[in-house]
Amino acid sequence: MADDDGIFLRNAWYVAALNHELIDGKKLARTILERPIVLYRGASGKVVALDDRCCHRAAPLSMGRVEGDDIRCMYHGMKFAADGKCIQIPGQDAIPAKLGVRSYPVVERYNMIFIWTGDPEKADPKLILDYPPLEDPKWRGLPGYMHYKANWLLIVDNLSDFAHLAFVHTNTLGGSEEYAYKTKPVAIEKLDDGFRVERWHMGADAPPYHKKVISNRADKVDRRNIGRMIVPGIFTLDTTFAPAGQGVEKGAQVPGTRSYRNAQFMTPETRSSTHFFWNYLHDFDIDNPNIALSLRHSLEEAFNEDKDIIEAQQKVFDVDPDYQLLAIGADAPLTYFRWLFARRLDAEKGAARAA
Amino acid sequence: MADDDGIFLRNAWYVAALNHELIDGKKLARTILERPIVLYRGASGKVVALDDRCCHRAAPLSMGRVEGDDIRCMYHGMKFAADGKCIQIPGQDAIPAKLGVRSYPVVERYNMIFIWTGDPEKADPKLILDYPPLEDPKWRGLPGYMHYKANWLLIVDNLSDFAHLAFVHTNTLGGSEEYAYKTKPVAIEKLDDGFRVERWHMGADAPPYHKKVISNRADKVDRRNIGRMIVPGIFTLDTTFAPAGQGVEKGAQVPGTRSYRNAQFMTPETRSSTHFFWNYLHDFDIDNPNIALSLRHSLEEAFNEDKDIIEAQQKVFDVDPDYQLLAIGADAPLTYFRWLFARRLDAEKGAARAA
Amino acid sequence: MADDDGIFLRNAWYVAALNHELIDGKKLARTILERPIVLYRGASGKVVALDDRCCHRAAPLSMGRVEGDDIRCMYHGMKFAADGKCIQIPGQDAIPAKLGVRSYPVVERYNMIFIWTGDPEKADPKLILDYPPLEDPKWRGLPGYMHYKANWLLIVDNLSDFAHLAFVHTNTLGGSEEYAYKTKPVAIEKLDDGFRVERWHMGADAPPYHKKVISNRADKVDRRNIGRMIVPGIFTLDTTFAPAGQGVEKGAQVPGTRSYRNAQFMTPETRSSTHFFWNYLHDFDIDNPNIALSLRHSLEEAFNEDKDIIEAQQKVFDVDPDYQLLAIGADAPLTYFRWLFARRLDAEKGAARAA
Questions:
Q1: How crowded is the C-beta side of A222, counted as CA atoms within 13 Å?
Q2: How far is residue A345's CA from residue A12's CA, in Å, rounded to a whole number?
Q3: Phi and psi of C350, rounded to 5°?
Q4: pTM above 0.95, yes or no
Q5: pLDDT band for position A2 (50/70/90)?
Q6: Structural domains of chain A, with CATH
Q7: Buried-most residue among A92, A191, B223, C252 (CB within 10 A)?
Q8: Which residues of A touch C326 (CB under 8 A)?
Q9: What pLDDT digit, counting tens, does each position of C226-236 carry?
Q10: A51 half-sphere exposure, CB direction, 13 A CA radius
């Protein structure tokens, strides 16, 4: 593989796929952190992730045939086990031990497939981010996937910033320019693996995406957002809308409160493109499938607003990789996150050199 | 910006746009001499040209919103004045002085927008080429724009050469192979900023584009062409058709004479693509709009004949940048022009080093 | 021309075109071994191959006009003879001796145009591979052309290998997985300029492509294949199907035997794309044109099965040029061929240095 210049944090779990992408025997060819990988679910139910290049003549294994939990390259018929070892060569009895392809640790959780492209010894499933709503039956959602032609950190920047809501998402997620001009950025709470930010917006109109799934659309709401951005690139956002003026900010249990839980996973495809997985969950009327559908549509619409501008940023850097950015006060969260990420990257490289 | 290798003459005026490209509030994103630029007409009528990248996070300002003469980046809401200075940051009171984007001097003349990408101190509007027919009501024309996937000097070469008329434009601008084989190249008059060439073609058939807009199509004509090629890449061609044999070459005022004035402006987009602006003006029946339309169609047809071959040349150089050309006698004009251009480029680089 | 890194064997004949590609005055622009070349048949019937770039301003001669055996560049009218010499410059009497474009030796044989891009002194037509069925009226076929987005050696590898038949071509050329698992690779006979391999397959079903053109489809056959792979990239395959069990392997003349002769020529276009010419000939019912058509369809279908996987291999190398392959026992033929090719390449480079 071309040297990745140490730009990726490899000792980390990334979402490789939504598990529904592997139904019906699908062999999913997906580049992850600039590694070509084939993913499939074997006959035993186990999910397998292998280098998507036969070690013999480089034919993609994703053009091969799954046999049990194994996969056979359909060029010359070599067969590989789930651990990547070559276990059959047509017309040849002895199989040299070095014959095989790289196998990647995978964990299936939250209806997603997590992958580890770094040192397999360190692939501890406990390191996967804990976000219970993704498996709690109280919450309902419809997971989504989008592809960005942009470096993942540009998406992290976007999600680290609440100021852009007013300018990019007025008609989808809501956000008011007038409010933006008057409001100071909210301080972030620095975490070891990211940051947390809490924001309240009292007595406001319900934003468009919320209005679409409620009946009392004209009522004012008190909105609370708690966002977390976690290394290497996971964003969660816990949102609550309570009827306005009933003391939800003081801890009152306000009837008619509606909550959302939102998890977004950025997985670098290459240094200039990103897989984006997300699920926007709600806790009301969960047996009405139209709510999850409506929310997915609304969020997709909003993400596409971001995507337009993020991919435009990427094009600027494609033409002029050295273009220097100038920070403003509102950049504290993204600046902190990029600093944290760089520190983690240095630590990983230092450990690799020491080893 | 990626280093442009000193291939562009920057201290010069280039056409950035036809002024009709900025009607209806259009924000025109156009790369000029490898600089991404946004052009718009502000509320005051002033034309503004700014770097098309927000200094904050590199989002294109052409995706922004014009407010008066200012423009607001619609990612995080930063607002820039016509001189490029940042004048508002939502949620932040103090604006660091260094915050801003590059602004480019522009001059509106001849229904075109001229831009200066070099040292702004030297942007003297008097340096814009004087070509009065472009604003004289006696002349009428319909300006045109074409995009070439070719280095601008290949277009300059093309226009510096009259020999190709016979082979490329027989059916449009006219030109006879038989004549080409018999005729020697005409000497050019060397100018400080380019060259001038005068050619007479006596008692010939009217060329196809001229025939389409006159009634006496079968009559022979005495044709005079005076071409000028000016640094950095402007070509003017003054053409007169007089009824043949009546002494126009001796200065006689021959009734029925028809004249054209033609100005062509080459603006490098990148080192391998070019914006081409032109206007072909006529001095007869100027209230009949079909004449200007017919001439624009004819010239576009002819330019497309050139474009096919010029873009094919570019592809040869794309594959083999070192391909060596061999000059012939007819190349004297283009050889002189390239020499002059190189000298001007050296002078500009020398001045930059001295400064 | 960009340096080709010494990856091509230049002192060799390659197929440049099928001769029917030059009918009706066609000027064929084709890149061969990374050289842009124009091919045409002159008025005398002679086939001409010239550098497809005018020496004057690099305009493609393939956009020019054939005049007799000469070609005229239709930019400025320069005319070139079949040997590449410039023989006319409009408006100029003296023609400098160095003016001209490179001309390539060509030989028309077997309804194909062979070209030599190396040292013209060494272009001996006797070096063209002798394969008599291509001109023997006893054999009938319909030649084909395909374009591969892959390095030619990946196609050579493919054809050097019989193991892939079972996995890639089960439904076209035939090949049984069960048989593949049981069978050892057949030893090759090493030749000075390639290798030869002979394989027998006794009492088997006729393969699909053969079944389509015979009436007794259910009968078992004894199949013999003799393959030869020749430097720089020519593959021939002589195939015979005899009714099974009648002693064809002992030399018996078995009635009802059907034979094929197959020649395939790989000509590098660039280091990552290839022209592929082929003819699959048969010796029965030669006046029934549907047999040649059926065989061409069948082979095209099979080659497209290869093309899918070969172009996928190329993409792996495009992304990761240093990807290391691991050989298995069945690779002996391709390993030998690549070794032979490298030795020939070294010899050519050594001779070039000595000269």
A1: 18
A2: 11
A3: -60, -45
A4: no
A5: very low
A6: 13-126 (2.102.10.10), 133-348 (3.90.380.10)
A7: B223
A8: 55-56, 96, 98-99
A9: 999 999 999 99
A10: 18
